[in-house]
């Protein structure tokens, strides 16, 4: 940038929507904690309360952190691309680790209580989402974070990476909604239809999940809010393409 040039600013409205997304994310985490603490006895490992780590970890990892990882390229619009990529991968990796803890918690809890595994629609959708999310993370790191992939391969895979990133975020929220409903039907099936406080609080959590997903999705799909390539990135991209595709002047034809 030239000396005296004004600092780059975010597009109108972007900061407000990102702030709303974070408020919704914190609200859904607080609501999850309130539900588990007030009505389900809290969270503890190697105890009858171990199962409660599952919904907490899934909401934190597969929804909140995954959503924030998707927003990285909108929030850090003027930072170095390499740093933004690393943060994007780090947040996704942290989400995977936290989700893995949640999956271990539910399997160990089921084993201790003699409950069968993987029979419900929630478990099918949730496990499929986690496995695909893990695959998406490995492919993303391989294509975009680590050197080796050619410019053409990156270009071909990028649309799929973006599509499946948003799709997996939607599937994660859907799996959480299925899990909330399943848990309510197991725990308070006799009183759920009477608008008991626990049911209302859990339903509120579901609404917050949907709202968080809608706000994040809106930010991601606004074309004018996409991260613009910096001048040095355009130059590096052209150099990288020239080297990998052997199109430089005097190169082999």
TrEMBL record:
Cofactors that this protein relies on: heme b
Main location: membrane
Substrates-to-products reaction catalysed: monodehydro-L-ascorbate radical(out) + L-ascorbate(in) = monodehydro-L-ascorbate radical(in) + L-ascorbate(out)
Source organism superkingdom: Eukaryota
Recorded GO MF terms: metal ion binding; oxidoreductase activity
Compartments (UniProt record): Cytoplasmic vesicle, Secretory vesicle, Chromaffin granule membrane
UniProt entry keywords in alphabetical sequence: Cytoplasmic vesicle, Electron transport, Heme, Iron, Membrane, Metal-binding, Translocase, Transmembrane, Transmembrane helix, Transport
Residue span, Cytochrome b561 domain: 20-221
Residue ranges crossing the lipid bilayer per the database entry: 12-36, 56-76, 88-107, 127-149, 161-180, 200-220
GO CC field: chromaffin granule membrane; lysosomal membrane
Bilayer topology annotation: Multi-pass membrane protein
Free-text function comment from the UniProt entry: Transmembrane reductase that uses ascorbate as an electron donor in the cytoplasm and transfers electrons across membranes to reduce monodehydro-L-ascorbate radical in the lumen of secretory vesicles. It is therefore involved the regeneration and homeostasis within secretory vesicles of ascorbate which in turn provides reducing equivalents needed to support the activity of intravesicular enzymes.
The protein's name in its UniProt record: Transmembrane ascorbate-dependent reductase CYB561
């Amino acid at each position: 940038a030239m000396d005296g040039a004004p600092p780059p600013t975010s597009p109108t409205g972007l900061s407000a929507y990102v702030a709303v997304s974070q408020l919704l994310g914190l609200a859904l985490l607080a609501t999850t904690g309130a539900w588990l603490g007030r009505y389900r006895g809290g969270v503890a490992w190697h105890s009858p309360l171990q199962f409660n780590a599952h919904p907490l970890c899934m909401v934190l990892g597969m929804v909140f952190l995954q959503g924030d990882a998707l927003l990285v390229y909108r929030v850090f619009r003027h930072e170095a691309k390499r740093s933004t990529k690393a943060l994007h991968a780090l947040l996704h990796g942290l989400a995977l680790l936290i989700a893995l803890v949640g999956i271990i918690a539910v399997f160990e809890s089921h084993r201790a209580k003699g409950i069968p595994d993987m029979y419900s629609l929630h478990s099918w959708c949730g496990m499929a989402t986690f496995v695909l999310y893990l695959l998406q993370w490995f492919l993303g790191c391989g294509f975009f974070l680590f050197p080796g992939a050619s410019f053409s391969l990156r270009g071909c895979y990028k649309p799929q990476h973006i599509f499946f990133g948003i799709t997996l975020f939607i599937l994660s929220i859907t799996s959480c909604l299925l899990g909330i409903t399943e848990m309510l039907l197991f725990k308070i099936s006799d009183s759920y239809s009477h608008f008991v406080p626990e049911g209302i609080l859990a339903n509120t959590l579901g609404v917050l999940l949907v709202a968080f997903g809608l706000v994040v999705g809106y930010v991601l799909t606004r074309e004018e809010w996409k991260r613009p390539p910096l001048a040095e990135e355009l130059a590096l991209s052209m150099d990288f393409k020239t080297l990998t595709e052997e199109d430089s002047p005097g190169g082999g034809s």
